[in-house]
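Re-run with default settings, no changes from the original entry. Doing this only to confirm the output is reproducible before filing.
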Amino acid sequence: MVAERSLLLVHAHPDDESIGTGATMARYAAEGARVTLVTCTLGEMGEIIPPDLRHLLPDELGQHRITELDRACAALGVTDHRFLGGEGRYRDSGMMGLPDNDDPRCFWQADVDEAAGLLARVIEEVAADVIVTYDANGFYGHPDHIQAHRVAWRAHQMTGRKAKFYATAMPRSAGAEAAKLPEDSWFARATDLSVCVPDDQVSTEIDATRYLPEKLNAMRAHETQITLDGEYYALSNEIGHRVLGTEFFTALHAGWHRSPSYPARTAVVSPGGTTPSGSTRSASRGTPPDPRTPRGHRERDLFA
């Protein structure tokens, strides 16, 4: 009898799972793997796109986003979803540098060992073979994404580093292609690719193009956060990108990485490319794999 494969994803807010890993989740769920999603907050501080929902207060938005996430998971075929520590245990921290970061209820202020202990129980329960989250910079510097990395890595350590550990990634070549919009698109065009990494820092690409319709439906479920126009989407900033059916990751487990270097809370790179103090973004983004990975030698299966 073949043992069940188990994939555990740790995301910061509802919608992160669909945008960054939705096709991968749908593919492995369809192939019979156990896919478990742990979301760290309800996303109470998200910006609301539809005018008819902008009356929602933060706590009301959090409840609304629970429903959105339920619909997204159903679209992806994922039946095992949990909020870290239970629904509402940790609050959305807001964007870096805002007063919300100081709220004692927010995830950014959570004790890492305590939160990691909660996640470690899930890792052991589902016997995770693979853990997916963000890099040490949280992909783009959001405090909840950074904290998700810290908590997931600590839980990985607590459980003996038995699972493979990956961070989501966007290689520059793919990011540049995704930023190309049709001439008649009403979305704004992306000019900043600073969240992308050099192609050789990407260890793994998962071709889940067959499951692009499921990913699109999952993204559509997050109506307060995402606008879709065909196979293109934008967040509240109205900057458009193509929705990708191939998703990319950087391996951070033993044999691929040096220990993560966590950015300090007072000097984390913000989405705009500067630290809160206004200094210039460092050339380093999290912990790249070592050795580097030529594109032709990337892994094609997270469980391989």
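The chain has one domain: 6-169+196-224+247-289. Confidence is low (pLDDT under 50) at residues 257-291.
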